[in-house]
Every structure is written in structure tokens, then in C-alpha cells.
Amino acid sequence: MITLSENAARHVSNFLSKRGKGIGVRLGVKTSGCSGMAYKLEFADTALPEDHVFESRGLKVLVDPKSLPYLDGTELDYTKEGLNEGFKFVNPNVKDECGCGESFNV
After folding, report:
1. How far apart, in whole angstroms, are the C-alpha atoms of residue 15 and residue 22?
2. Which alpha helices (DSSP H) does 3-99 contain, by range?
3. How much is the pTM?
């Protein structure tokens, strides 16, 4: 299961409203970075037939089958820390992250 925090859901809803279309977010992982894997996040207009679809706070969270084992149990949060703000993946599967925080391994 993948969930959205209240802050993340509010941010996604606001963005989709301004955009004028979309059903939620698509999450995934790709091979990248010094630790092996990096997160992918994009706004989704439709679900693909192979997507796993989760409902969280009234929004759809779409995950491709290959990414699900790495993301299962993750909460997507939206945080503001000083001048920085953005999405943060709270993933219980992560064993190690690189120093820059851009990649991880499980």
C-alpha cells in the first residue's frame, strides 16, 4: 500500500486543480545514482492497465508492477524546511541512502 500525507494530498490536489486535469500521481523507481535507485514522480491523467492503483485521501496513487516491491509501505509527504520544499518519500524498505539524498538501495 502507498499513501499520501495530508500535506502531500493538499499539494497534489492544488496542482491538479490549477492544471485542470489529472487523477493523482504516478510513483516509480529507476536505476540511477550512487546508491542504485532513484524515485520517479509525475502527475497522472489516466491509469495504465498494468498499474497498481491505491486510493489515498481522495486521490489515486499509481505504481507500476516493477516498482511496487521497492515502494510498498511508502508514504509520500510534502515538506518545507527553510527555503527548501518538495516531496519526500518515507519508505520503510530503504536500507541505505547516498549522501546527497538522491538515491537509495533496498
Report:
1. 9
2. 6-19, 68-71
3. 0.85
